[in-house]
Write a structure and sequence with these properties.
It is a single chain. The protein is an alpha/beta fold. Helix content is about 40%, strand content about 15%. It is built from 10 helices and 5 strands. It has a 5-stranded mixed beta sheet with strand order 3-2-1-4-5, sandwiched between helices. The longest helix has 15 residues. It is elongated and about 80 Å long.
Length: about 240
Amino acid sequence: MAREIVLDTETTGFDPKTGDRLIEVGCIEIQDLLPTGRTFHRFVNPERLIPADAIRVHGITDEKVKDAPKFHEIADDLIEFIGDAQMIAHNANFDRNFIDYEYRLCGRPVTGEDRWIDTLKLAQTRFPGMPNSLDALCKRFKVSLVERTLHGALIDARLLAEVYLELRGGKERVLDLSSGPVGGRAGGGPAEIAAYGARPNPLAARSTEAEHALHIAFLAANLKDHTLWDAYGVKAVEETAV
């Protein structure tokens, strides 16, 4: 089974080579394209001051992370959570550069480019020439941004997980054949109604009353095992005939 980790980071700036450091990491576990509910989230003391421009983006202040663990103190927990799973990030080079830089500083093995899936590249392939920021993709796929007033690693990882599932094919429609008619008509089981909503104006029947009666009589006479059809009139016709 395919295990993947959707990951996001917040940092003091854009480039670890110029002294910027990681200050937050959030991960969401996915198994076979379904979130498992397992998450990993840590704030990190960057051992430097956070610039005002960065604070305006994510709202993480020096005060908020002054008592947080340093990266080397959480590195093993992060490595254990990720395991050998593929990592998914939006503009993955950014997150990979910071994660690998922090790993190097504390003597841990780096991840390597082949471990990462970049949702920005996936989106650019699918929507060439269109805005493909995480915000733009959330709006395109109707993923709610109501909880996102500022950037945050775990919040952004949750949003990205939903976007990634859509980029990989979306949530498949559930076909529920075990349910009976809804609102007095065939079709539209609970799973379908939950996913798409009930049809506001049911379609008019194209068959006449006589044709409908012939159809029910045919089913009653020719189907030995018609449990699926009981809710659609066959059982009632048989009981009436008896």
